[in-house]
Amino acid sequence: MLGIIHSPRITLTAVAADPRWGPVMALTFVVSLVSSAALLATDVGQLALVDQWERAAIAFGQPVDDAQYAAMLDASERGSTVYAAASSLLSGPVLAVGLAALLYVVFARGAAGVTYRQVLAVVVYAGVILAARQVIAAPVNYARETLASPTTATVLFTMLDEASPLARFFGVIDLFVLWWIGVLAVGMSVLTRRPARPLAITFVGAYITLALVLAIVMAVTGGTA
């Protein structure tokens, strides 16, 4: 797992030759869950969760009244652990299985000797980067009293109005996710014997397109926060 950080190509070459992904999936899930649950168990984390829900609703043009805000507060107090488990499951094992299927069908199915198990192993090991982001973000978010990712591109553009479409676009672009995409591209390059750079450009292009669509949707719906 440490090899994913300092020597991804060498590590993923070894993973492709022996694609055992179960223990790494379990460990990264537990790490993400513990990091998220520890933050959401605090009053700061629960209020930050409510703030995140409220901002998301307003950004998509859905105002939150007092009754809805009170319901959010109650949900954050009662269901913070469930929320942490669900979000960690979706961003970990569920994402890995689904993304591996997509990558296998689109990029690897025609490559000689490449199996879905190998693609899944590559995706799971790349997920070490996302688990590391969770570990780093939890204490930073506690200090900042927010669940907004501290590693988005907005840290480079602090002069922007946070409600502007451009700020929202950069708010979706996470630097750790770009790192993760780069590692995925290296892994798929190892499996398919294609150059890593075109794969990385394709993956980043899809990510930027998604960020642009989200920013446009929030602008069209008229959100102000």
Proportion of strand residues: under 5%
SSE arrangement, N to C? HHHHHHHHH
Q: Which class of secondary structure composition applies to the elements?
A: mainly alpha
Number of helices: 9
Q: Helix fraction?
A: over 70%
The number of domains:
1
- Low-confidence regions: none
Description of the structure:
The protein has 225 residues and is mainly alpha-helical. It has one domain (2-221). 78% of the residues lie in helices and 0% in strands. The protein is globular.
Concise account of the structure shown:
By secondary structure, the chain is mostly helical. The protein contains 9 helices and no strands.
Give structural attributes:
225 residues, mainly alpha, 78% helix
Topology:
Blueprint: H1 2-6, H2 8-17, H3 22-40, H4 43-59, H5 66-108, H6 116-144, H7 165-172, H8 175-192, H9 196-221
